[in-house]
Amino acid sequence: MVDRTTNRRVARKPATPSPTLQDVAQAAGVSTATVSRCLNSPELVVEQTRERVLAVVQELGYAPNFGARALAAKRTNTIGAIIPTMENAIFARGLQAFQEELARHGLTLLVASSSYSPKLEEEQIRTLLARGADALLLIGFERSARAYELLQQRGVPYVIAWAYSAGSDHHAIGFDNRAAMRALARQVFGLGHRDVAIIAAPMDSNDRARERVLGIWDAAAEVGLDRDALTLVQTPYSIENGARVMAEILAGPRQPTAVMCGNDVLAVGAMGAARAAGLSVPGDLSITGFDDIEIAGIVTPGLTTVHVPHRQMGIEAARVLATLLSGGAPPVPLLLETQIISRASLGPVSGT
Amino acid sequence: MVDRTTNRRVARKPATPSPTLQDVAQAAGVSTATVSRCLNSPELVVEQTRERVLAVVQELGYAPNFGARALAAKRTNTIGAIIPTMENAIFARGLQAFQEELARHGLTLLVASSSYSPKLEEEQIRTLLARGADALLLIGFERSARAYELLQQRGVPYVIAWAYSAGSDHHAIGFDNRAAMRALARQVFGLGHRDVAIIAAPMDSNDRARERVLGIWDAAAEVGLDRDALTLVQTPYSIENGARVMAEILAGPRQPTAVMCGNDVLAVGAMGAARAAGLSVPGDLSITGFDDIEIAGIVTPGLTTVHVPHRQMGIEAARVLATLLSGGAPPVPLLLETQIISRASLGPVSGT
């Protein structure tokens, strides 16, 4: 469904001006009055006509954006952000910093949450454009070609955060999820661990989750381990899921000496389940996370994880959008450094 | 600045229809064409006229909402929510449930964060109305009379969550912050604690924070303690602030045997600082929270706190708005039950 090559090709297309009411009327072979009637009082239009017109509206990506007219300079000074989830603090800190920096530029933030659903994200892109958003913040590169086309057709500036791709033409600000997790995995294997399990988020339509697993597989290959030698379980990010999957792994045939989790939320859940099973962390089992959100430093033992510069990413993303809105051209893409935070949850493989 | 009596009086006023372009033109003594020119291409209007017109726009609370015309039935099916903060998970779970329930009614959620600033919240109410929000979710009762007037003038349905006031005319869904904290405080005093410190959020313009402190004072009075006998420190909700204030209290002249915190985030910070100071919790010092967010169950020892039904509150709030939008009349207000979650962080006062 998602093809990053396609996305990139789409992204290369110069922004075409927003389709007008006239464009829709022409394409649908009706009067502009009929088009607006379909949008404003569809009950007055015979179904057949209405359906044809709305099909064209979809096709051309026509999003009536009267709101944008409402403010001077045709600007609403409203920025939209679509994040995968509002639960657990994964995006909270970066988003807060993003909003604070936007405020310094006189911009107001409206946030939508896609629940990691590409379909829902596309609807929300449509909604935010129709509500007159001047620009958008999106998480990760992976979305339907149609979503990218919609952005291109409308010529609305957007910045992609939380991910980095050297080859990308998008305005992006993020970090190398694969390299960051590879560095952490090298430490895990370097401590002698070979029975390593991975608890990751569903990798389909989540490039960050996939890149992190690829990073672990890279490091495994470096020590001559086949990726299939590593237990891999995919589950949505939540403390409960981390705990449940950890319990399942411990009940399984192969006992890992280390469990690498796709983020801190899963890792904290896994740690709780390991303790509940009477295992000592890291004595019996090492556990690692990703993100370095606050809970990573609060749990006992502290969680060894990858620190993501969430605040910096939020601030830089706001600056990129402000630059784009003022007609400037920010660097494409922008790479931020991550670092490994060594706490107590990762130790050498036990001698036993 | 904020007067809840005023708010209530405002709230009693029947919703007046949104001011029209004509209303603005008449009040400003110009043509409607001039008004829309001021809004759409102000550069074409002499400054003096433009300023007079925009002043009237402000005064009447006229928010041109062309967006609302863009969808059938003059509805955008967009709901706005303004929460005090996106950081730490205080509102995350309730908001996620709110959005999931809205989706079942075909409604899309856009969220703004006011950083606990009434001024910023008012701007965001204005923004969300201008962007065509059909209805709003607001947190707590306390906001400027102007903010309530704006909502009344526009006749936009809204529901207030996270707070409850028996006397209120607002559509509200929440819990009794004062009674909930009073019940927890009774347990604290019941365990023999008399040297009790309170770490609360700034109580000005935060009715939830104030009600919780009042609940502790109620329970103190019941055991013959004067409220002034309890150390009270106000600081914004954050783990860092909880830790910093806890360290200050421990460095002070009076060592408390129990510290009651305004929420779990402050309590987790306080617990970390107590441990860092070499104190055992609850052996040397008992600590309590409020909210029962995930970290409350993750820290060691587990945090004794008040469980707030966040998911239920989010779901009910969405149903109230859906009912209001379909012309129905939901109960006003709706009270949810909280319960005390007893974990290990609260114990009897040490014999020493």
Question: Which features would summarize this protein structure in a list?
Answer:
Rossmann fold; Peripla_BP_I (chains A, B); transcription cis-regulatory region binding (chains A, B); six-stranded parallel beta sheet; transcription (chains A, B); LacI/GalR-like_sensor (chains A, B); 12 strands; 43% helix; 352 residues; disordered N terminus; homodimer; 13 helices
What does this structure look like?
Chains A, B: One of its GO terms (molecular function) is DNA-binding transcription factor activity. Chains A, B: Residues 1-24 are annotated as: Disordered. Chains A, B: Residues 19-73 form the HTH lacI-type domain. The structure is a homodimer of 352-residue chains. The first copy, chain A, is α/β, with parallel strands linked by helices. Chain A has 3 domains: 2-64, lambda repressor-like DNA-binding domains (434 Repressor (Amino-terminal Domain), Orthogonal Bundle); 76-175 and 310-339, 3-Layer(aba) Sandwich (Rossmann fold); 178-307, Response regulator (Rossmann fold). Chain A contains 13 helices and 12 strands. Chain A has a 6-stranded parallel β-sheet with strand order 2-1-3-4-5-11, with helices on both faces. In chain A, strands 7-6-8-9 form a 4-stranded parallel β-sheet, with helices on both faces. In chain A, α5 runs parallel beside α13 and α10 (239-251) crosses α11 (264-276). Chain A starts with a helix and ends in an 11-residue tail after the last strand. Chains A and B meet through α5, β2 and α6 of A and α5, β2 and α6 of B.
